[in-house]
Amino acid sequence: MNERISFTKGHGTENDFVVLDDPEGALELDGAAVAALADRRAGLGGDGVIRAVRSRSAGIEVPADAPEWFMDYRNADGSIAEMCGNGVRVLAAHLQRAGHIREDRFAILTRAGARTVEILHRPATPGAPWSVRVGMGTSRIADGNRIVEIAGQRLEVTDVDMGNPHAVAFLPAEVALEQLDLSHRPVLDPEPAAGANIELVSERGSRHVVMRVHERGVGETRSCGTGVAAVAVAAAHRAGDESGEPWTVDVPGGRLQVGWTADGEVTLTGPAQLVADGTTLI
Q1: What pLDDT score was predicted for residue 281?
Q2: Which of 118, 127, 217, 237 is least enclosed, having the fewest CB within 10 Å?
């Protein structure tokens, strides 16, 4: 492919993405093209690439009641991912700013199913943060089936499925989260067949934790939306907290809030910033 295309660069708590506006599904986006776009030295740079495409033009099987827009999300290495909580907030801001959607509450189709987004704040100046709440779906949780090895520790993992798989481990008080070496992926035992995002967590206070994450197909990122949701789910489970009150989760790139609806859906609230527009060749 050697085609000039328009892009938007955006991030949610510094988890950054290249957004390609492709309403009619004209782009032939393969893994190599995604990896080239996401390359931080030879490309535009990003933790992932999001193709904004109408569901009927996305080349996928969609239900009759599918939302109009589909988030075709790829990791930085070109692999396909089911869902991205920070990415869907960035996509929601892009769709609104581009005039594709005018409502403040709407649904976006992902490979993990439809996700409802709500625009809570629209910035008055370009580049300033939007505030977006995302319905992340329900979680599935399992304890004690896996171990993560990090900093000489073997820690029990809580497996949380948020549409994509997460392995959450809570650090003992004597291990400093900030000093962990995540330049290499920690070892999971046993390794999930489809891999997993790995979250390492320290407590900070009542319903307040801080985390770092090593993402599938990317490496350590400044934030991970589904990972933040998974951590809050695991933390509430660990604390025996069934109140439904929100949890605060800090990441290197900022702060997010995780809550629950009356019917048990997990919600994620945080910023989305659209920081650049341009054209590139792929």
Answers
A1: 86
A2: 127
224 is catalytic: yes
Instruction: Write out the residue range of the structural domain in which residue 155 sits.
Output: 140-264
Give pLDDT tens digits for 261-272: 999 999 999 999
Which structure tokens are listed for 84? 């991205």
Active site residue 265: no
Please tell me which residue in 224, 231, 233, 282 is annotated as part of the active site: 224
In tens, the pLDDT along 223-256 reads 999 999 999 999 999 999 999 999 999 999 999 9
Residue type, 61: E
Residue of 84, 109, 209, 236 marked catalytic: 84
Tell me how many domains the chain contains. Answer: 2
User: What's the token pair of residue 252?
Assistant: 């290197």
Asked whether residue 121 falls in the same domain as residue 157, the answer is no
Mean pLDDT, rounded, for 192-205: 95
Rg (CA), the chain: 18
Cα separations (Å) of 115 from 136, 137, 185, 247, 268? Answer: 6, 7, 29, 20, 11
Q: Does one domain contain both 126 and 244?
A: no
Distance of alpha carbon 137 from alpha carbon 265, whole angstroms = 5
